Amino acid sequence: MNNKSQIAGKLYVVIPAFNEEKRLPQTISKIRQYLPLTRIIVVDDGSRQPISDFLPRSVIVARHKVNLGKGMALKTGCELGLKLGAKYILLMDADGQHDPKEIPVFINQLKQSQIVFGCRTLAKNMPIWRFFGNRFLNYSVSTLFNLKLRDVWCGYRAFDVKIYPKIKWESCDYSSDVELVVNVGRHKFSYSEIVVGTIYHDKGSVTGTTLQDGLKLIIDLFIWKLKFT
């Protein structure tokens, strides 16, 4: 068995989900082309109707009774993956924005990097505030934490679980995506970045984030910088 096959055989996908009964089943169907359903972990973060009602029974589902936020859902999924024997974890969104066809590319990159980040293409229908906000955020993180990433807020990423204790985040919300990046920079883990396609379903809020989320995150960045200096 080659190195790529070894990684694929020990990879679990973790997907946080909140009221995604329309798009999640299609996402799962696409993932199963690359990984068995028994290595897909969906964390239902307090959805109106249990997500498990819409998924094949072989998908692993953990459920929060109330909505705790994306960061907490990701943490629940990762820690469950560790208990199940995962050696590598791939994080994806539930709404179909992350194309599962990129999974083999992530697996290939894990042969040489402890963590692999997805980098979204700049789609024409990306909200304008999101476009400039992302550029400012990328610049701030690169400057403050000595990282060279083009998209620090893309939630599509994969990592070796050996580094999980060091990159683990405290944020409950979408800030967890960037806090993980900050922790990678702090501990100088090896990383790489791959370009991934992204579909923006609406122009008002991308992956659930808002302008207020972005402003809060900028404040968080400077707090983390002061905390770890």
Q: What this model shows, in words?
A:
This protein has 229 residues and is of the alpha/beta class. It has a single domain (3-228), classed as Alpha-Beta Complex (Spore Coat Polysaccharide Biosynthesis Protein SpsA, Chain A), CATH 3.90.550. It has eight helices and seven strands. It has helices at residues 3-8, 24-31, 70-83, 103-109, 128-145, 164-167, 175-187, 211-228, and strands at 11-17, 40-45, 60-64, 88-91, 115-120, 157-160, 191-196. It has a seven-stranded mixed beta sheet with strand order 3-2-1-4-6-5-7, with helices on both faces. Helix 5 runs parallel beside helix 8. The longest helix has 18 residues, at 128-145. The model is unreliable at 203-207 (pLDDT under 50).
Structure keywords:
7-stranded mixed sheet, Spore Coat Polysaccharide Biosynthesis Protein SpsA, Chain A, 7 strands, 38% helix, 229 residues, 8 helices
Question: What's this model, at a glance?
Answer:
The protein is an alpha/beta fold and 229 residues long.
